[in-house]
Amino acid sequence: MVQGGIVAAYGDEQVFALTLSYYLENNSVASNDLEVALPPDTAFQSVTIDSISPQPKTVIRDADGNWLARYNVNPGQKLEITANLTVRIYLTPKKDWVAESINPDDYLSPSRYWEVYDARITKLAQTYRTPRQIYDYVVTSLSYDYQRVTQNPTRLGAVGVLVNPKSAICMEFTDLFIAIARAAGIPAREVVGYAHTTNSKLRPLSLVSDVLHAWPEYYDSDRNIWVPVDPTWANTTGGVDYFNTLDFNHIVFAIHGKSSELPYPAGFYRNAAKSGKDVQVSFVETKPDEITAGPLTITIDFPDKVTGGIRSAGHVYVKNESGNSISQANISVESKVGNINLSKVEKNIPPYASVDIPIEIRTTS
Fold first, then answer.
1. Where are the beta strands (DSSP E) in 284-339?
2. What pLDDT was estimated at residue 315?
3. What is the mean pLDDT of residues 154-172?
4. Same domain, yes or no: 276 and 305
5. Beta carbons of 149 and 206 less than 8 angstroms apart
6. Nearest to 45, CA basis, from 234, 243, 253
7. Model confidence over 304-340: pLDDT tens digits?
8. In terms of C-beta density within 10 A (0-12 exposed, 13-18 middle, 19 or more buried), how is residue 56 classed?
9. Do 274 and 128 reside in the same domain of the chain?
10. SS3 category, 360
11. What CA–CA distances, in Å, run from 282 to 21, 84, 115?
């Protein structure tokens, strides 16, 4: 509900059903591992992979928290992937979210479009020192360019939009926030995803591939979580507060922190020979079942014979076979042979992901 700069959201969560299509093609003469980004879990989002076809070789969680589904693609092979997901969006951080500390330097450095050391950016960072001050500056200093969004626009970056403040779309609102925040010593990053809107004037979508949206996040070191804000929609709605609370309408597809461009979100893996949408999103009217941790399978890769007095190396692979992530998994490996007693806590195992635990046995001769 929007009226007079006020937004209201009701309930604890909003549930969406997503069907995402991806296209991979290996044009090289050798087999390659290629990856697509699936919507990941965040502090404000829970993702269940209901089905994915074909199933990936594995899923990797990168340093930014992205879920990267990895496929081995043969030379000349064309691969079409379909993923059906259930996504829950929350207004406040999930109670079971495992806080993760970060290396601030990873999210303070300059990158393409985030010109942290540019004199114009550093000067602004001396004036605007907090996330709220930076957000307010970006919201009031830029103007959304409705004409440019229809033209397959080139990303201007933070410095570019300072030169052309009336030519901003969501990418530039986000880039300027991140650049100033990083210059002010506040870790910040970009999120690209789907934002549900029924009014493209009040809440425009700027990225051309399947009409996606971008918004920034800053790191709250007191709570050890990434906090999303949306200066673009604050600007276009005339002052609706997208700083203290976002809404139920922002679905994260990909997170850009260490890189300002990668990984590509769903909607960017298009088959040029086909028409139609690669991102389909609908509301789930009936509340789905509660999220439950799925089964873990264990595979041991170790020599059949162990020679006394000689070290033998092997691996224990623990795989999440379910479509839900598993948090705080306590993994123990014990063996009387070789006196092995190892334990490991995995903070987050994505769906279909594996944990590799190297082991070494040395028996007496």
1. 296-301, 311-320, 326-335
2. 87
3. 98
4. no
5. yes
6. 253
7. 776 666 777 888 899 999 999 998 888 877 766 666 7
8. buried
9. yes
10. strand
11. 15, 12, 37
Task: Mark whether 188 and 318 lie in a shared domain.
Answer: no
* Angstrom distance (rounded) from CA 170 to CA 208: 11
CA distances from 23 to 81, 215, 269 (A): 6, 25, 5
Give, for 346, the enclosing helix (H) or strand (E): strand 340-349
Range of the domain at 185: 2-90+100-283
- Whether residue 156 contacts residue 172, with contact meaning beta carbons closer than 8 Å, is answered with yes
Cis peptide before 263 (omega within 30 of 0): yes
Distances (CA, A) of 354 to 92, 319, 351: 30, 4, 9
Q: How confident is the model at residue 202 (pLDDT cuts 50, 70, 90)?
A: low
Beta bridge partners of 298: 318
The answer to whether the CB of 323 falls within 8 A of the CB of 349 is no
Out of 250, 283, 316, pick the residue that ends a domain: 283
Structure tokens at 357: 């635990």
Q: Order across the sheet with 58-61: list the strands.
A: 32-38, 67-73, 58-61
The answer to whether residues 271 and 306 belong to one domain is no
Tokens 């404000």 -> residue: 44
More confident residue, 349 or 362: 349
Tokens of residue 20, six digits:
């995402």
**Structure token digits, residue 181:** 């925040």
* Domain tally, the chain: 2
In a domain, 95, yes or no: no
CA distance 281 to 307: 57
Tell me the C-alpha distance between 203 and 141, whole Å.
18
- Taking alpha carbons only, the member of 196, 191, 171 closest to residue 265 is 191
Could you tell me which residues come within 8 angstroms of residue 26 by beta carbon, excluding any fewer than 6 positions away?
32, 34, 73, 74, 75, 76, 77, 79
The Cα-based distances of 273 to 54, 270, 330 in angstroms read 20, 9, 47
**Between 39 and 277, the higher pLDDT residue:** 39
